[in-house]
Amino acid sequence: MNEGERVVFPPGWYVVADAAEIPRDRPVKLRRFGVDIVVFRRDDGSVAALDDRCKHRGASLSLGRLSNNCVACPFHGFEFAGDGECKRLPVLGPDAKIPKALHARAYEIREKDQWIWLWWGAVPEALPEIPRFEHLHTGRHRAHTFAREWDASFARVIENQLDPFHLPFVHKTTIGRNMPEAMTVNHVESDDEIIAWPGAERTDPREGFYIAFRWANLWENRIAERFSIVAAFAPIDATRTRTYLRTYQAFVTLPVLGWIVDRLMVFSNKAVFNQDERVVVSQPQLPLIAEDEVLVKADGAIIAYRKMFARWLRGPSQRATDQAAE
To answer: What is the pLDDT of residue 1?
Structure first.
């Protein structure tokens, strides 16, 4: 997890922004994984992502403008396409031979389900499918998103959301009101998914209330058939996270009433977040996966996440070996 002073984030598809945060008329700077990234839209609306540094003099490309389907550096007008290639070097004229050393680092980036996804890490020959919770995209769900930043690592925030037995303590005045302190927490796991729920064992883990996590940073709290809360935990750097919380509900879809429900949900979710944040930021944030904690049986989903983290950190061949051995 740590190599010297550098924190290593495992590879995977990560939500890095809400799609609404990336307009069509200007580039946007995102700090993710401790790196500054410029994200912009091409003329057709598709997204592109590059290191936010011009290879010429180091200026921030996100301070520039969009031009000729490229992002133009604000310092000398060098233009960079979505694949990182430097397409135009104005000072040398239209026939300039552009050195390959000027090309910027480009990232695999996609837009899906109103999220912006970036593949972090070495790019395999065949990229995995972008994760999604299919049932939220087949019905008539109304979705609303808000975001906030935490002074906590994305791993700590994810583990907090995989821990239902903190509810009667941290959230005793909100969602944990009247919940029993003693509970059984069940879970099932695979290479890229964890599903957990309190209460009795189930034949179908998705029957009723559950918490689901999809690698690398997407989470769902399925509260009822027509109501889910989805979160994406975007790592700003090793100890800061931008959390996107999106409610999906299909019980009030009329525009005006739906808008009112959306705002009420934001108010409620902010209150819950405040309670979580107070505790989570008090935990040690590094290493990303704690090495000196004594976990108990009810922490099964957190143990599963830590195993998943280690598998993805080691790479696809080791993940296959680990799965075969289980």
So the answer is: 43
